[in-house]
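Schema walk-through. Below, the input block comes first and the output block second. Nothing else is stored per chain. Lengths vary across the set, and this one has 289 residues.
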Amino acid sequence: MAGAGVEVGAAEGVEVDMIGVGYRRPLAKWIESRPTGLECLEITAEHFYDGGEEKLATLKKNYHLFVHGLGLSLGTPGTLDKSRLESFAKVSALANPDWISEHVAFTRTSEVDLGHLNPIAPTRESIKVIADHAREVSERCRKPIILENITSHIRLQGELSETDFLNSVCEAADCGLLVDVTNLFINSRNHGFDPVKWLHELEPRRITQLHIVGYSMENGRYLDGHATEVQTELLELAGAVIEYAPVKAIILERDEHFPDPALMAAELEKLKKIFKTNGSGHGIGSIAA
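--- output ---
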């Protein structure tokens, strides 16, 4: 699929301006009730490696789905883990998502599985590694792929700025971007840069989807715990992204401290209002995948 000239989110039957959540089992009953305002779901591929075919079949009847990966380790030099790639591709085939996604990161070395996302130095060598792997995943799944920015307690230096690096990866892989608004905000506070300036250094037509969830703080550091309500400054930053780029969908994330359905619905409504208030006439950017 990569390089085939397919527009992310522009395929027949794919809507834009969608609001959804990351599928988690504690939210299953609420999701299955088909609440007003819930239009799409992001499926974490690893959560379905050991089964769940019937669940995916049900979900895809009612919602637009996106499949998100955590452990393909696109930034690790060498070949992708074939077993993980095949498991990811199986979930993608079952879900038939509008697009798939992974991180600009590595989770393993040639010897050790680190178990978490780690930053990549913004070098030209890294561009080729990540782009080649992104293309391989996209082609194996026969789906467009988009790549996500991560949080990091260290800000690695290299030949390029982070935004030039992300633009170059997307150009080389011919793919889109998943901008995690919370990750961007946290990094901007912990590393002392302007998040809106950072945003405006990205190629806007590449930005396809957003993630958002509330941040937490510990010992003066901003953290991404995926456990709190979205704060006002994050909603404002999400609005800035939507005003700047042709975003197709926002996914509200939550991995613990799950709120009651009324609060989830209220958060979805806030996100929908951001689309209505800040949505632009950008049109659909051509993101090949």
